Amino acid sequence: MNQIQQIREEAIQAIESSQSLEEIKKVHVDFFAKKGKITSLMSQMRNLSPEERPVFGQQVNELKNELQQAYDAKLEVLNQAAMDQKLASEKIDLTLPGIDFSFGHVHPLMIVQREIEQIFMEMGYDVLEGDEVELDLYNFERANIPKDHPARDMQDTFYITDELLLRTHTTAIQMRALEANNGEIPIRVICPGKVYRKDDDDATHSHQFNQIEGLVVGHGVTLSDLKGTLELLAKRMFGQNRHIRFRPSYFQFTEPSVEVDVSCHMCDGEGCSVCKDTGYIEILGAGMVHPAVLEMAGFEDKTITGFAFGVGLERVAMLKYGIEDIRSFYTNDARFLKQFERFE
Ligand SMILES: [Zn+2]
């Protein structure tokens, strides 16, 4: 009985003096666990006489219940204290200034590309892409620019081998599309992509730039179909009051070929510094697909004709947003790029 009293005092003392969850856990180990002092009291029962056993057992049970209650009460107090401390340490100061998140946005060239793609997709065109490293065959020969032709001046083209080059125009994609169709019509595609020329970089030239070319092939496709298509493009890109005019030109790939001017969106054709007082801005090249090009791609039916056009994305973006230096697109100056957030 003395031993019971002694353990009671020890346990109460240990529980009361516990200041933390770690300390109260130790009390549990010392008294309540398998090798704890209360459990070891129980094992002493076998040394007692049968008459003494029930009395002793009852005493031990009472002790156990009493200590368990004291233990539980203290544990709750310490748990609460630990929670209060955690909450206090995680307190949020709502008066502190916030963190300024910096979001990226679409590059101005991509904004223009997506706009043009959207216009043509609405008219049922497919968007085709191709490889930037291209075979001479598709970049030049199939586009009616045979070897030794002055148009493929070595000065202009980055050759990798005699037959492999960095494409100088996205025409190569169109030539592959023609070949893949193997005489089947209709074809309605636009081909956006990066192209490369050996050019010295300045405010209006870059050795790398972006084009979108378009190609339509079908029965009886005419120059007036081309005009209507490009007029729609001009109105969608530069405003409903725009109109276009054709000037005769020369490209190997088309016959007849035209330069396409759009009435100036800055002065409405009155004359200003952007259009150099002409009222018009030269914006793209176009024409009827040369019969030799169709023939090389396997189109034998002479009633099948087509038109093609090509536009420089940088040129369109510069006119649309009043950008004066083409190099601004590539120098990754965040101050320049940030201005285009609102155009997305
Ligand atoms: Zn003007």
Descriptive report:
This protein has 11 helices and 9 strands. The chain is an alpha+beta fold and 344 residues long. It folds into 2 domains: 2-89; 108-343, 2-Layer Sandwich (BirA Bifunctional Protein, domain 2), CATH 3.30.930. Strands 1-4-5-9-8-7-6 form a 7-stranded mixed beta sheet, sandwiched between helices. The longest helix is centred in the N-terminal third of the chain and has 38 residues, at 52-89. Zinc ion is lined by residues 264, 266-267, 271-272, 274-275.
Main features:
344 residues, alpha+beta, BirA Bifunctional Protein, domain 2, 2 domains, two-stranded antiparallel ribbon, 11 helices, 9 strands, elongated, binds zinc ion
What's a concise summary of this model?
By secondary structure, the protein is α+β, with helices and mostly antiparallel strands.
Write the layout of secondary structure elements.
Elements: H1 2-17, H2 21-32, H3 37-43, H4 52-89, H5 108-122, E1 126-127, E2 133-135, H6 136-139, E3 164-166, H7 171-181, E4 187-196, E5 208-219, H8 223-238, E6 244-251, E7 254-263, E8 280-289, H9 291-296, E9 304-312, H10 313-321, H11 334-338
Parallel strand pairs: 1-4
Antiparallel strand pairs: 2-3, 4-5, 5-9, 6-7, 7-8, 8-9
Helix pairs in contact: 1-4, 2-4, 5-10
